[in-house]
Design brief:
The chain is 75% helix and 0% strand. It has helices spanning 7-27, 35-44, 47-57, 67-89, 95-103, 106-118, 124-141, 159-182, 189-215, 217-225, 227-250, 253-259, 262-274, 281-297. The protein is globular and about 45 Å long.
Length: 300
């Protein structure tokens, strides 16, 4: 099979596309659910589908016995929830764009966490590709010079710290998910990814349902009433996560997360071709830089 068509590359591209689709559907819940309620549906409505997949696959190992699996699964689940919260926390004043851009350091932090936890490194060419793609992401994320605070808004200087925290959380969760999948102890990468996904979603769903039940039961009931709109979010989220987990079972998390930045290109193309929006010269440079970094990353 040509290097460009390796399974981990195809799975990562599918994951990025499905994640972008999930984000579009999740955005449509704005105004119907709170931020935490809209966030919770990506986990709770994906959970039944994940266990249905396990029932179909019937993997040799359903409940991993090793302590390593539960350490990595719980760590990844908590890190992802914390990262999502930290990213939402950046949505204040002028810190929004800066915090969001800082969260994109996820890829570089993934390299560090993978080395610390799993002892996995990257090649010099891949490291160069990661750095170049990060530059492209930053250029795409920079706001227009005319962007200003909305009336009555105040800058949130904590957004810098929360943006970096979000990047750390997403990086740590990616590495932990790879560690968990490798600890399942089965030969099939799909079985390992499916088992990991089911238990991670179970942990996340239980935590979020308990939190909403205790702190905001109205939102918990609203997520159920809106099931026609929330169910597609869960379906797209489950399929995206399955592709992410499968790709990270097959290859290093740093490579997968770096290639996953292609999601921004999907949004860029949609903005240009579908919504007919005007693209700034800086965004064109950022898109080309991102493509160049990705090509270096997956170069055979």
């Amino acid at each position: 099979m040509p290097g460009w068509l390796e399974p981990w590359i195809l799975l990562t591209l599918a994951a990025a596309f499905l994640q972008n689709l999930r984000s579009v559907w999740q955005k449509q819940l704005s105004g119907r659910l709170s931020l935490l309620g809209a966030t919770s549906v990506r986990f709770t409505f994906a959970l039944p589908l994940a266990w249905l997949l396990l029932a179909i696959l019937q993997p040799a190992v359903l409940v991993p016995a090793g302590a390593d699996f539960w350490f990595y699964a719980a760590g990844g689940a908590l890190a992802q929830i914390a990262a999502t919260w930290a990213l939402l926390r950046t949505f204040a004043g002028r810190g929004f764009a800066v915090g969001t851009t800082l969260s994109k350091t996820e890829v570089l932090q993934t390299v560090l966490f993978a080395w610390l936890l799993l002892g996995e490194g990257v090649s010099l060419l891949a490291a160069t590709g990661i750095a170049v793609s990060l530059l492209g992401v930053i250029l795409l994320s920079l706001p227009p010079r005319t962007a200003a605070l909305s009336p009555g808004a105040t800058p949130d200087h904590n957004a810098y710290a929360f943006g970096l925290l979000a990047g750390s959380g997403f990086a740590l969760s990616a590495v932990c998910y790879r560690g968990a999948a490798l600890s399942v102890g089965v030969e099939s990468f799909l079985d390992a990814a499916a088992v990991t996904l089911a238990w991670v979603l179970t942990l996340q769903s239980v935590l979020l349902i308990l939190w909403l039940g205790l702190r905001d039961p109205v939102q918990l009931r609203a997520t159920v009433r809106q099931w026609r709109r929330t169910a597609p979010v869960g379906m797209a989220g489950m399929l995206a996560s399955l592709c992410w987990f499968s790709a990270m079972t097959l290859h290093h998390a740093a490579y997968v997360r770096a290639l996953g930045q292609v999601e921004l290109l999907f949004a860029f193309v949609a903005s240009l071709c579908w919504f007919r929006e005007r693209i700034r010269p800086l965004e064109w440079i950022g898109a080309c830089t991102l493509v160049g970094g990705i090509l270096l990353l997956i170069w055979p």
